[in-house]
Amino acid sequence: MRIAIDAMGGDNAPHAHVESALSAAAEWPDTQLILVGNPEVLQPLLGKGAPSNITIVPALEIIDNTDEPVKAVRRKTDSSMVVAGRLVKEGNADAMISAGNTGALMATGLLVLGRLKGIERPGLAAIFPTLDNQGVLALDMGANMDAKPEHLLQYALMGSLYRSKVHGISKPRVGLLNVGTEAAKGNELTKVAFGLLEQAPINFIGNIEARDVLDGQCDVIICDGFSGNILLKALEGAASTIFKLLREELTASFTSKLAAAVLKPSFRRVRDRMDYNEYNGAPLLGVNGLVVKGHGSSDANAMKTAIRQTRTAIGNRLIAALADEFSGK
């Protein structure tokens, strides 16, 4: 397996990416990790005793979060993100991972790799933690803001196949994000999409309200990119706010501090279950190659999780399965 890592993209690049590569290289010696970026920056971080399954491919430009995505991909052709995409396009890597500019990564997927045959709009997927510890795959999380019902149908097919191939779920339960559970609820997009999903060769269980997404009612939740991105940020914000409030209350008095000391192991377990690092690695489904998005603030542990997810997807031939599904084979 060969995985290209955009070593210069993300808030904690390149240190976190190099650290994760060193750890992953030791754990999975069968995987070739390709760090894409400035060798003068990366080589000192690797040190003299770097494993033989880590290599550096030079790329002297960086796409920043402030860059306009499409312009950046077209103009910064020697950027770490674009070079990583070309490695996949040219068959020199089986997948790429980036924690950099999300819009630019989607543009790289479309402009460098292109869409899979039969896919109209790729979708960005993400795993949310659930009460049953199985997680729920949500897409689209922002790749396509103005979706059509047919796009939601394609997301459902791709999401169901992803959970089956990567997570080993035999009949993934697919839900449609909506304002109510009744079939007639929603806007024109969700009403038409509901009918298409009912007829699709998937395990469609109907509409799911946002408040129930984390309950474990479904394995895949489908929505347009506008709603999905709002859902993603609302859940992240709610989790952050809850932990801040708990921290304030548990340090407000001597008595609460004593209680916090007793409950600390329980709070740590809750934090770990809600930690995005444990679910890091969102695939851009529908492009002609395996492109995985890491959270912008990914640390070394989160990046290693993304590498693990990517290895599984490669091993289960995810892109080939998607290509077969939408080419009619």
UniProtKB/TrEMBL annotation:
NCBIfam families associated with the record: plsX (TIGR00182)
Subunit structure, as described in the record: Homodimer. Probably interacts with PlsY.
Lineage: Bacteria, Bacillati, Bacillota, Bacilli, Bacillales
Main location: cytoplasm
Top-level class of the enzyme under EC nomenclature: transferase
Function: Catalyzes the reversible formation of acyl-phosphate (acyl-PO(4)) from acyl-[acyl-carrier-protein] (acyl-ACP). This enzyme utilizes acyl-ACP as fatty acyl donor, but not acyl-CoA.
Gene3D superfamilies: Isopropylmalate Dehydrogenase
Family: Belongs to the PlsX family.
Record's subcellular location: Cytoplasm
Keyword NADP attached: no
Record keywords, A-Z: Acyltransferase, Cytoplasm, Lipid biosynthesis, Lipid metabolism, Phospholipid biosynthesis, Phospholipid metabolism, Transferase
Origin species: Cohnella abietis
Catalytic activity entry: a fatty acyl-[ACP] + phosphate = an acyl phosphate + holo-[ACP]
Keyword Endoplasmic reticulum: no
Biological process terms in GO annotation: fatty acid biosynthetic process; phospholipid biosynthetic process
Pathway terms, separated by semicolons: Lipid metabolism; phospholipid metabolism
Enzyme Commission numbers on file: 2.3.1.274
Protein name per its UniProtKB record: Phosphate acyltransferase
GO annotation, cellular component aspect: cytoplasm
Molecular function per GO: phosphate:acyl-[acyl carrier protein] acyltransferase activity
